[in-house]
Every structure is written in structure tokens, then in C-alpha cells.
């Protein structure tokens, strides 16, 4: 795994004093055969709007390897968002879906009460893989909904001060995605495709947001961002300045604070330890159904540890 992009054009500026912005660094984690930078959740911040999980991986050189291999595993209570910058990934799930995804396309899986899926590089895969895997927590009123899968082959685009904007979910800069969401949120990619780009990014003041550089470097809210860092912007901001050198890609995620106490364990988003235990038991009992198109063994849930099932202290934090 190598990160090849670097650009000295963005001056390194620390978070201004009293700015209320928070800059954090991700940590490495292993998902199947892939090493990821886990940017969210943080110890002090479990979710931002409904976004409760942000993994950024690659660019990884998969040439001559079997590539990504994430065996079948279950989810409850969330949506998974798959977004690629390079490469291709084959998704298969317990609804019978088989879908190849490429850069610029969106795979949106609503787990609701329960779904299982696998993700793997196709047999003839691209040599480089680079992407993000995101989770959106479902609000209490929707989290037992029927599972569903959407593939959006093309998404609405806009221009914003030299950035090519693609809206994955929600609305930004006059472009609205029809991806199904269950609480007010936004997810967008900004790429400085034609050279250095600079804009005043419109924000919804009732949303909290996170920004990270997925490729190259960037500056947001006056703060320099490198790959692996995450900038948090609290609610109350109608806009923020964003700039990036040519070739850089910035991700924006935001939403209205969920105000619900989430319990994340393994691949489940729930509210109580009992729900988590029931989902793990159900998975091992085969209740999520088989995932077609995957030859190997499914994942097993790790042993339940009571210490890891403690609820966070502050609702919505
Ligand atoms: Mn998954």
C-alpha cells in the first residue's frame, strides 16, 4: 500500500485558536485483505450527523494479487456507502445482488433489520484500488426497515470555484442526489480536476460536517489537511473556504446531529447490548441468508466482550 500523492502547494496552517474546528488523525485497521485508515469513529466523537464510520484505503497496488477480499458478513441498523477513486470492486449480498462498482458510481446498501454482503476484487481487476467505505447510522424510526441495495451508475455534478463536485447523497451547490437517505445529510466529492481550485463551500448551518483529503492535500476552514487527517466543523457555519492543488480530491460529509445514543459493535449499529448479541447469534444461526457469488467461508463475529458493549457517555457524541 502506498500513498503516492503529495503536493507542497498548500501551506501548513494549524487549527486557529478558538476556531472550534478539530483536526484528528486516523489509525490503521485491517479489513479483510486491505489496510485502511480509520478516520471515524473517534474516541471523543462517535458520529457526525448520521455518519458513524469512515474508512479510507489506498491507493493500493493490487497488481499480481487476488486483490480485495472481504468475506460475507452481516450488518444491521446502518447504510453502507461504497465510493471508489480508482479500481473496481464486486459487491454481492443476501438479497441476490451482484454489482460491480467503478469510480464515480455509488453503491448504497441499506441494512435495516439485517443484510449480509461480501466485497471482493473481480477476477480481472484493475491494478490499483483506492476508495472510501462509509456507514450511515439509521435513525431509530427507520432502523428496522427492510434491507435494500441501490447502485447509482451516475450522480449529479456541479462546479464550485474550480472544483468538480459530485453529490453522493443529499444536496450541494444546487445538485441533489436521489440516493435514499433516512435523515438529513450530505455526502460529496470535490476534485480539483483542472488545476488548483478554491471555493467558498456552502454548508447547512444545522449540519455538523467533516472534511478529509482523499487524494493529495487540501485546506478547509483555514486548516491544512493531509491524507489520513479528518477536520470536524461544528454546526452553525453557513460556509467554509476550501482550496486544493490540482489533482487533489476532498470529501465532505455532514448531517443534522442524530441525537441518539448509538452502540457500534463489529458490523452492527444498535441501541442495546441485547440487540447486538441477538444479531451475532442470528448471523451464526444463518438467519441473514446466504451471500451468493462468494466461494469462501463467511466471517464469524468476534467473541462478545461486555466491556466493549458499554454505551457512550453522551448522547449523539
Ligand atoms: Mn460491510
Number of helices: 1
Largest sheet: 7 strands, antiparallel
* Low-pLDDT runs: 1-12
How are the strands of the biggest sheet laid out side by side? Answer: 1-22-19-24-17-14-13
- By secondary-structure content and strand pairing, the structural class works out as mainly beta
Small-molecule binders: manganese (II) ion
User: What is the strand content?
Assistant: over 45%
Overall pLDDT score: 92
Q: Distance between the terminal alpha carbons, to the nearest Å?
A: 32 Å
Number of β-strand runs: 26
Q: Level of helix content? A: under 10%
> Over the alpha carbons, how many angstroms does the gyration radius reach?
19 Å
Characterization of this structure:
- This protein is mainly beta and 317 residues long.
- It is built from one helix and 26 strands.
- The chain has one helix spanning 273-284, and strands spanning 22-25, 27-31, 34-40, 51-61, 69-75, 78-86, 89-93, 98-101, 106-110, 115-120, 128-137, 148-152, 157-160, 163-169, 171-172, 175-176, 185-191, 197-202, 208-215, 218-220, 223-225, 229-233, 239-244, 249-255, 263-265, 268-270.
- A seven-stranded antiparallel β-sheet has the order 1-22-19-24-17-14-13, with no helix packed on it. It has a seven-stranded antiparallel β-sheet with strand order 2-3-4-11-6-9-12, with no helix packed on it.
- β15 and β16 form a beta hairpin.
- It starts with 21 loop residues before the first strand and ends in a 33-residue tail after the last helix.
- The structure holds manganese (II) ion (MN).
Amino acid at each position: 500500500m502506498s500513498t503516492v500523492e503529495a503536493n507542497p502547494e498548500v501551506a501548513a496552517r494549524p487549527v486557529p485558536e478558538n476556531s472550534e474546528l478539530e483536526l484528528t488523525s486516523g489509525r490503521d485497521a485491517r479489513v479483510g485483505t486491505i489496510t485502511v485508515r480509520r478516520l471515524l469513529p473517534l474516541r471523543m466523537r462517535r458520529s457526525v450527523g448520521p455518519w458513524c464510520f469512515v474508512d479510507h484505503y489506498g491507493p493500493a497496488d493490487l497488481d499480481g494479487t487476488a486483490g480485495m477480499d472481504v468475506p460475507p458478513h452481516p450488518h444491521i441498523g446502518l447504510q453502507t456507502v461504497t465510493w471508489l477513486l480508482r479500481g473496481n470492486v464486486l459487491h454481492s449480498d443476501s438479497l441476490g445482488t451482484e454489482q460491480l462498482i467503478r469510480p464515480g458510481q455509488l453503491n448504497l446498501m441499506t441494512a435495516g433489520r439485517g443484510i449480509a454482503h461480501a466485497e471482493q476484487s473481480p477476477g480481472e481487476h484493475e491494478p490499483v484500488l483506492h476508495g472510501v467505505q462509509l456507514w450511515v447510522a439509521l435513525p431509530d424510526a427507520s432502523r428496522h426497515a427492510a434491507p435494500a441495495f441501490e447502485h447509482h451508475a451516475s450522480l449529479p455534478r456541479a462546479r464550485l470555484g474550480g472544483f468538480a463536485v459530485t453529490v453522493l447523497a443529499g444536496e450541494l451547490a444546487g445538485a441533489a442526489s436521489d440516493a435514499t437517505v433516512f435523515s438529513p445529510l450530505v455526502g460529496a466529492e470535490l476534485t480539483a480536476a483542472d488545476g488548483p481550485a478554491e471555493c467558498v463551500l456552502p454548508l447547512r448551518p444545522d449540519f455538523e460536517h467533516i472534511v478529509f483529503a482523499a487524494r493529495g492535500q487540501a485546506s478547509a476552514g483555514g486548516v491544512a489537511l493531509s491524507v489520513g487527517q479528518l477536520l470536524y466543523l461544528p454546526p452553525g457555519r453557513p460556509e467554509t473556504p476550501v482550496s486544493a492543488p490540482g489533482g487533489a480530491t476532498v470529501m465532505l460529509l455532514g448531517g443534522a446531529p442524530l441525537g441518539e445514543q448509538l452502540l457500534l459493535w463489529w458490523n452492527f449499529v444498535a441501541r442495546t447490548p441485547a440487540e447486538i448479541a441477538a444479531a451475532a447469534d442470528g448471523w451464526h444461526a444463518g438467519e441473514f441468508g446466504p451471500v451468493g457469488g462468494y466461494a469462501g467461508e463467511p466471517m464469524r463475529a468476534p467473541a462478545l466482550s461486555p466491556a466493549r458493549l458499554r454505551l457512550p457517555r453522551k448522547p449523539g457524541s
